[in-house]
Amino acid sequence: MEIHQLTPFLSVSPQISAADVGLAAAKGFKSIICNRPEHESQDQPDMAEIRAAAERHGLAWHYQPVISGQITDADVEQFQTLMNQLQGPVLAFCRTGTRCCTLWALSEAHHLDADAILTAASQAGYDLSAQRDRLQARSGQASQGAMKAPERRHEVLIIGGGAAGQSVAGSLLQRDPDIDIAIIEPRQEHYYQPGWTLVGGGVFERRETVRPMSDVMPHQVKWYQAAAHAFEPELRRVILEDGEPIGYRILVVAPGLTLDWDAIPGLRETLGRNGVTSNYLFDLAPYTWELVQSTRKGKALFTQPPMPIKCAGAPQKAMYLACDHWLRESRLSDIEVEFCTAGAALFGVADYVPALMQYVERYGIELNFQHNLIAVDGNSRTARFRVTDAEGNSQEVEKSFDMLHVCPPQRAPSFISESPLADEAGWIALNPETLQHSRYGDIFGLGDAGNTPNAKTAAAVRKQAPVVAENVLRALKGEAPRAIYDGYGSCPLTVERGKIVLAEFGYGGKLLPSFPEWIVDGKQASRFSWLLKEKMLPWIYWNAMLKGHEWMAKPEILHHSPTEQEAQEACNFADKK
């Protein structure tokens, strides 16, 4: 738990969990203020659980949601009123603590000097220098002649400190160690998400898949530990959650995507209990393994929503590893396993389907195509699906379950989909080869939030990052982008413990194997691929990919920029789908 004291009466914190409330009580806090709206991001804990924990520990609970980047005078007055009413010490939290700190600063401006407020905030770890004018205005000080904090600007500004953002930063620094880079990222942890499948399969420990963000953030990079709120591409700047603008020469947008748990009624309320789990969440992957070990008979459902989703093979991976365990424990004959996918095929690239079907038959899995999960009732352990036939007719069917592994619907983050950067579907509009924005030449993007028709995997990011780095440096020199991305993505399908079908493909489903067939035939399950997934890829991720070492990922450089026709041809297969 990270606590920053502003005054003896008030401390602020990034997002807390229900477990943190007990620690807060032990430290002597009497009241908690939540300044973060519910469901603001996919990794946000359940607010009802935090409130219940506060009530159990005798702490007063107050919910004052403030929209990121839109702190109004009314918000400030409401916060000041709360502070005058509450028994202290008080702990206020939001996503990073920045909004809480800003609310305090503005509420104190009527009787404290702006410099004193900014110094106190800085000592607590928050840079509010961009609020100087507003602080002086609220204090009634004459702003004429006062020194205005200059807008902070960087050569390259990156949105997102996940796999994509860190990899681009690493590739840029390998090419130019002196380049001025800043990363906007609110999280304090960095996750190796491809490892969560193996956590859910009992192979990895959860702690192996997470490190402090400060450990992976390059020391040369300026880290804004805040959330991006809005884009002003015409002014070449991004607005942070506290309203501060950050300028750039080149912007790289890599925020990841949002897991839309609320798109399925009843799902969020039952996650982590009643046999409902998902390897798509760091906190739930261990529960998947717990369920696999405890399930001895009954029905196990594994679901997959409509595309696009990240790691499209992940729902199957969870299923195959579970079936392999049940088979080894001689339980599989007592468990009905169903794969319910909204799609019309087992896998999007036909070359890999025969190998997967061997395991479907081996485990006795019932395949239910065009079954889209639309509701879950955890208490009765039932799931409702919309089933569509070949003629397009649909009906709803209900299935009972003893274990339910859910892959949630996925979309671009709201601050992307509602921005000028988005296409009609809400994703970042990118050239599929150069990864340059379709309308803004000084903006590039990569990773899960882009609209490029490739598999949304960490392996895709590994190939995209060098392309973006190369083209960003060219753009800084006023040159046209020349590095191209071929749509490479990889999905190591864990069909049993010790064997993997290594699917590697690019745009149009073209097979793009990394190794000669005599080393590994990706269309067959192999132990070499398992060794690659379990032992080699995690090491490569932490020690090479994030640091810009482009092993087997050097970008192809064209002698001319791709034409609009060439870019369109790279996406033709998406139109055919």
TrEMBL record:
InterPro entries, per the entry: BLH_phosphatase-like, FAD/NAD-bd_sf, FAD/NAD-binding_dom, Prot-tyrosine_phosphatase-like, Sulphide_quinone_reductase
Domain Beta-lactamase hydrolase-like protein phosphatase-like residue range list: 4-109
Pfam family, one: BLH_phosphatase
Gene3D superfamilies, per the entry: FAD/NAD(P)-binding domain, Protein tyrosine phosphatase superfamily
CDD domains on file: PTP-bact
Domain (FAD/NAD(P)-binding): residue spans on this chain: 155-271
PANTHER family registered for this protein in UniProt: SULFIDE:QUINONE OXIDOREDUCTASE, SULFIDE:QUINONE OXIDOREDUCTASE, MITOCHONDRIAL
Designated name of the protein: TIGR01244 family phosphatase
Taxonomic source organism: Marinobacterium alkalitolerans
Lineage, top ranks: Bacteria, Pseudomonadati, Pseudomonadota, Gammaproteobacteria, Oceanospirillales
